[in-house]
Amino acid sequence: MDMMISNLQQQRQITEQLRREAAVKRIPVSQAIQDIIKYIREREMEDCLMIGFSSQKANPFREKSTCAVI
């Protein structure tokens, strides 16, 4: 009996998830690509990986210097 109740609860959760997914607004892939390109172009001057860093110290990806004390 507990197995049936558990299975029923699981099926209800799956059904609820499918309903949520079906309600998601969909757009054509071509429109999504255009939106992504527009987003990138609007922000490319802020992207340090595209334009570089103003100085080496501003680069969080630079190799850290090693210091050895003997």
From TrEMBL:
Keywords: Cell membrane, Lipoprotein, Membrane, Methylation, Prenylation, Transducer. SMART domains: G_gamma, GGL. It holds the Pfam family G-gamma. One of its GO terms (molecular function) is G-protein beta-subunit binding. GO terms for cellular component: heterotrimeric G-protein complex. The keyword 4Fe-4S does not apply. It is found in: Cell membrane. Residues 4-70 form the G protein gamma domain. InterPro entries: G-protein_gamma, G-protein_gamma-like_dom, GGL_sf. Gene3D superfamilies: Transducin (heterotrimeric G protein), gamma chain (4.10.260.10). It comes from the Eukaryota. It is a lipid-anchor. One of its GO terms (biological process) is G protein-coupled receptor signaling pathway. PANTHER family: GUANINE NUCLEOTIDE-BINDING PROTEIN GAMMA SUBUNIT. Belongs to the G protein gamma family. This is Guanine nucleotide-binding protein subunit gamma-1-like. It comes from Sipha flava (yellow sugarcane aphid). The gene is LOC112688393.
